[in-house]
Amino acid sequence: MRVVVIGGTGQIGLRVVSGLQTLGHSVLAASPGTGVDIISGDGLAAALVGAEVVIDVTNKVAMDRDASVSFFETAARNILTAEIGAGVRHHLALSVLNSERLSDSGYIAGKLAQESYVRSAPVPYTLVHAAQFFELVPMMIQMLTTGGVARLPHALFQPIAAQEVADALVHLATGAPVNGRYQIAGPEIFRIDELAARYVRKTGGSVRIEADPHGTYFGAPLTDDILLPDEDAHLQWTTFDDWLATQDVSSAA
Question: Thinking of the domain 2-244, which architecture would CATH place it in?
Answer without folding.
Answer: 3-Layer(aba) Sandwich (3.40)
